[in-house]
Amino acid sequence: MKPLYFLAGGPRIVAGTALAFMAALATAPAVAQQAYPSKPIEIVVASSAGGILDTIGRTAARGIERLGQPAVVKNMPGGGGTIGTAAVARAEGDGYTLGAVATSHAINPGVYANLQFDTLRDFVNITQMVQLTNFLVVHPSVPASNLKEFIALAKEKPNSLTYGSAGVGQSNHLSGELLQQDADIKLIHVPYKGSAQALTDVVGGSVSGMFVDALSAEPFVKSGKLKLIAATGLERSPAYPDYPTLNESGLPGFNGNTWLALVAPAGVSPEIVTQLHKAVHDEFNDPQVQQRLLAQGVLPVASSPQDFDKFLKNELARWADVIKQAGIQAN
Fold first, then answer.
1. What is the homologous superfamily of the domain 41-131+257-326 according to CATH?
2. What is the side-by-side strand order in the sheet with 227-231?
3. pLDDT tens-place string over residues 118-161
């Protein structure tokens, strides 16, 4: 009989090696299952269905579906965007819950004293998706047809002109406050529960004017039911090249453009953020998508996570200063 030979260490080494091999086999499927994404991704839109944030959130969802899983939009309006945003902050940082947010994401920390989240600490920034042009419009009965005349009228008759907004602390409210601060004028704020009713009352003449998104306002401007004073933004919008900006019309540096962005709960890995950003970036850079958005007055941006980080910090500081000077607080 041939002698039996054993590895150094005897049967225990052989048994240990076998156990390690079986453990590796057992864990292999688990490692494979960790590939992202492996299930549907939910995008919480902090507004009602049908609005511009909902529209852009669904555009982002189509881009995210390039990763191979469905992207489902869930609308959670209310609280100036804080309800939906708080839900995102509470979610697991695994990349399966994302949030579509608006300019209010940078405004709310200065307006609400008791937010349930920290805008910088509790989120990972993915991208600024788009930039929106807004118009300062007035009813035709207001004896001003440009910014210079509007400011002169407001200075001649302080607190005689009213401006509507979507509510206290909303972006078009703050644009009105910024206008008063930069132009050294006094207007009367008339808050509504949404911009649609405010716009209706401006068209009807019970409110002098307002800042409102260009897409909603332009039909009334073209029909003569509203007068355009100026457009927001540091430069003229590619969608509205014939409309002068407040920046070029006497208020250098005025920027009342708004924006929409995509964020995730804190803890999402840089690798997943990179995947999500690329998918959204590719969607917003599709020529057909860009053409459709520009026709609605929406400028595609799809900035990098790093650029959006810097942009958001600047926006937080900018609007905090406006809010402090105006003494605004919602709770």
1. Bordetella uptake gene, domain 1 (3.40.190.150)
2. 188-191, 162-165, 209-213, 134-138, 227-231
3. 999 999 999 999 999 999 999 999 999 999 999 999 999 999 99
